[in-house]
Records
---
Amino acid sequence: MKNKKRLVIISSLVIIIVVAFPFGFFYVLNNGNPLTKYIADKKVPAHLVEKGYTMDDLNESHFVEPKHTINRKFYHGHYLVVFNDEPDITYYYGITKIRHKVKQFCEKDKISSIGITDTIEDETKHSEKDCTNSR
């Protein structure tokens, strides 16, 4: 009787692991790490407020998962910010793995008048002096 009970418990655990692992893997692959998103959602808005911005200054701000590799000192997810007074430039912020510091990436996306997105590193109105490269 004990062996049968033990066999049922072990086989149930194996089935749960075999089923749950792929779901968890594909969730993180498609949506990013939820812990990284949580950290970015807390830290970046606080950083922007610290820099003197209000939520009224922002046209768009949210977590994004880039499709390319980034600087290894940073978590993979970025925080996208578009300011109201520069709607054609998208700024990206990252969170360092050590001490969870917020840094602006020097690379920004600029939408041209014909709708083509180009990556620029020029200094713009909302560029931070201590930005870092994302790659």
---
Amino acid sequence: MAFEQLVARLLRRDGWREVTVSGGAGDLGADVTARHPGDGSLLVVQCSACATPGAPSAPPTSSASSAPSSTTTAPTTRCM
């Protein structure tokens, strides 16, 4: 959970609001969530370990019923 805490700290530093670390069983891949300070939009971050830095990792899989119908952007998954 150390990496998730670092991501949360950076989001708070940059002005994001309602920053929450929720990684663990049952989180549906949402390790860190935050609200944009301007428009209140929700940011969902999934923190993953990768074997090769910079390599794309497989996007999370989920059933259509668990994804919100108002989702307008596809997830971006890169190993850092």
---
Amino acid sequence: MVRGRLGGARRAEPGTVHGGDRLVVAGDGRVDQLFQQRALTSTLSKEKLEPKLPWTADFSAGTVRFIGLAELAGALGLVLPAATGIAPILSPLAASGLALMMVLAALTHLRRKEPAAIVLNVVLFFAAAVIAWGRFGPYAG
């Protein structure tokens, strides 16, 4: 319910953005930027990535490229379906997939004893989880 001009409650218009949705929409853009930056692994060679991303030494070039493409697809999946109105169910699915990827990435960094990288994975996990919750849950449009 939304408050009307005279203070009375009225039904919200379909398709309008409300307080909780604004948080999820704003969160989509920031999280999308973070995942797009991480998705550079899909475009750069493994040799160029190793100095910046030491975990790439543990994986083949094809696997590193696949991880980057999956993160890029997830980042696009966070924003495009909700923004275009085409198959909006894909946004929470993309957020759920990215949350799962962050759990797996944190496990990789834990195995490699890279605590600083785990912090970023945890932040991105919670951001993706909040978006998934907002899109699947009570704020789903």
